[in-house]
Design brief:
Distance between the termini of chain B: 40 Å
Distance between the termini of chain A: 36 Å
Structural class of chain B: mainly beta
Largest interface: A-B, 30 and 30 residues
Number of helices of chain A: 0
Order of helices and strands of chain A: EEEEEEEEEEE
Radius of gyration of chain A: 13 Å
Strand content of chain A: over 45%
Largest sheet of chain A: 7 strands, mixed
Strand content of chain B: over 45%
Shape of chain A: globular
Radius of gyration of chain B: 14 Å
Shape of chain B: globular
Helix content of chain A: under 10%
Number of strands of chain A: 11
Order of helices and strands of chain B: EEEEEEEEEEE
Largest sheet of chain B: 6 strands, mixed
Helix content of chain B: under 10%
Oligomer: heterodimer
Number of strands of chain B: 11
Chain lengths: 114, 113
């Protein structure tokens, strides 16, 4: 299994541009999550999904959108990029909602908005 | 109430020493407390986790101590090694149907040879 994969690894955007961060998992996990990581701030949940066709907002959803048309894929869309969206983005997945169900993280996408 | 507060922000320990990272929470609805380890350029990975009805959990050199009444928990790394140099995040899982995690701010650990 490849686990959780993310593309691209790095990206530089100009203010106002848009892009989609790709996330895929091959573990047949129902639950998927998008986090952003900023220095000294930990990981903040942007959006999550409990299954295909079901998504909901996390702590910091403004400026982002998601979709979940398949179990495997959970893309994150940035519209009108702003410097505040400069961050490292991590996608994660887990098998179930059970408290002991581990979240598996992808390698991250480092995004710079200038 | 949804916050998890982690300290210190950074930690330098000599090889063979004990590394201690502390976390505190407010929300009594949290029902699982994992620790994640992250190496530079990688995603976080689960290191060890504990339920709130257990006061201590040990896996090799890593131990979680949990104080439910004080709403605090800590990670102890015994015999710290240079290979333990990483960023550590405590987290708390909310008792709900979403599996969401709330993360602490992170601690960057450097173990000097």
């Amino acid at each position: 299994n490849a686990g959780v994969t993310q593309t691209p690894k790095f990206r530089i955007l100009k203010i106002g541009q848009s892009m989609t961060l790709q996330c895929a998992q091959d573990m047949n996990h129902n639950y998927m999550y998008w986090y952003r990581q900023d220095p000294g701030m930990g990981l903040k949940l942007i959006y999550y999904s409990v299954g295909a066709g079901i998504t909901d907002k996390g702590e910091v959803p403004n400026g982002y959108n998601v979709s979940r048309s398949t179990t495997e894929d959970f893309p994150l869309r940035l519209e009108l990029a702003a410097p505040s969206q400069t961050s490292v983005y991590f996608c994660a997945s887990s098998y179930s909602r059970d408290r002991t169900s581990e979240q598996y993280f992808g390698p991250g996408t480092r995004l710079t908005v200038t | 109430q949804q916050q998890v507060k982690q300290s210190p922000q950074s930690l330098i320990v000599q090889k063979g020493g004990i590394s201690i990272i502390n976390c505190a929470y407010e929300n009594t609805a949290f029902d699982y407390f994992p620790w994640y380890q992250q190496f530079p350029g990688k995603g976080p990975a689960l290191l060890i986790a504990i339920r709130p009805d257990v006061s201590e959990k040990k896996e090799g050199r890593f131990t979680i101590s949990f104080n439910k009444s004080a709403k605090q928990f800590s990670l102890h790394i015994m015999d710290s090694q240079p290979g333990d140099s990483a960023t550590y995040f405590c987290a708390a899982k909310i008792s709900s149907n979403t599996g969401k995690l709330i993360f602490g701010q992170g601690t960057t650990l450097q173990v000097k040879p």
